[in-house]
Amino acid sequence: MTKELFSTSEVAKILGISRVAVFKKIKSGEIKAVRAGRNFVVHRKDLPVILGKVLTEDKKREIASAVKRVVREYGETLKLLGQE
């Protein structure tokens, strides 16, 4: 049977950070968690997002914006490098 919910301690071990850091990320919204009594739990489906293995729509927009900015600022240089 596969585990569906992870405690803050388990998430901290997976991410290699402290429990306090996990709580801060939950409070800031970086980690999606649900309150279970006095504790928080993280659903299995949210782990790939936390680990950065899945691109969220916000991340996709951020990447697209960065690419546009680079092309706008360094477009000519990129063209010259492409010709070499």
Automatic annotation (TrEMBL):
InterPro entries per record: HTH_17, SinI_DNA-bd
What is the originating organism of this protein? Answer: Candidatus Giovannonibacteria bacterium GW2011_GWA1_44_25
- One Pfam family cited in the UniProt record for this chain: HTH_17
| GO molecular-function terms, A-Z | DNA binding
- Which residue numbers delimit the Helix-turn-helix domain? 5-47
- Protein name, as recorded: Helix-turn-helix domain-containing protein
